[in-house]
Each structure stands twice: as C-alpha cells, then as structure tokens.
Amino acid sequence: MTNKRQYFNVFGMIEDIRNNFDIATKADLDQLSWRVDTIKEKAEELLKNFRRHTRTGSIRVKRGRKVEGESSVVDLIVKVVGKHSDGAGPKDVVKETGMEIYTVNYALSKAHRQGRVQRISRGVYVISDGRL
Fold it and tell me: Which DSSP state fits 6?
C-alpha cells in the first residue's frame, strides 16, 4: 500500500464556505455601499426639491401658470430685483423665490426686453426708472 497524502486548496475551501453560508465579500459590500450612497443622494435631491416647492406655496412655474399672489412670474422677479439696491442676479432671485434657475433667467431676460429692469453688468440687474 502506498501512502497517499491528501492536499486541500485553502482558497477553494474559503469559496465553498462563502457560497454555502452566504457570507458577503468586500466587492459585495462595496457595491452595497455604492447603492446606499446613490439612494441617499436621490433622497436628498427629492427633499431639496420638496422644500423649495413648498417654501412659498406653489412656485413651480410652467407655461401659462402664475405664481400665487402675483400677476406673473416676471412681476415677482421684478419685485425681488427691486429689493436689492445694488442689483440682483439670477442666483439671488433663486434663493429668495425657490424657482428653477432657467425660469428665473428667462423671466429676467423678458423683463429686460420689456424695459422693466436694466442690466448693469453681466448677470446683475436693477430696476429701471424706479418701476416695479
């Protein structure tokens, strides 16, 4: 009789244990961490949008809709620009109203075309001739 030695593969044994007992690997944990971070970012964005739209009532403006208590979006933006004696930019208006930046940019350019605000420098507007 010959003496046969049995060799075992440690890595194979570890793989068998991991598969049989459902033990997570570092790659599994990294993927799970990435998914949790993605969900967290989306939840924060939703919460930010919710707070922005509920801060002053129904502020989300689409074509043809008006902001509550104002005759138009342009009127609201002209009033906000009028509060700033040294001029206000789109970011200032967004902070005060919670509107989307593209809505503010469009309304500011419309107010400028109507002559209700003047552009004193790039991105800075003031009320023209004291009109509100």
Answer: P
| Structural domain count, the chain | 2
- Residue 88 amino acid letter: A
- Reduced to 3 states (helix: H, G, I; strand: E, B; else coil), residue 9 is coil
pLDDT digits (tens, 9 = 90+) for 67-119: 455 567 888 888 888 888 888 889 988 888 888 889 899 999 998 898 899 88
State which residues form the domain around 105. Answer: 73-127
Spell 19-48 as b/e; 16+ CB within 10 A means b. Answer: eeeeeeeeeeeeeeeeeeeeeeeeeeeeee
**Residues 80 and 117 occupy one common structural domain:** yes
Whether the model clears a pTM of 0.85, i.e. scores above it, the answer is no
Within 10 angstroms of residue 101's Cβ, the number of other Cβ atoms is 11
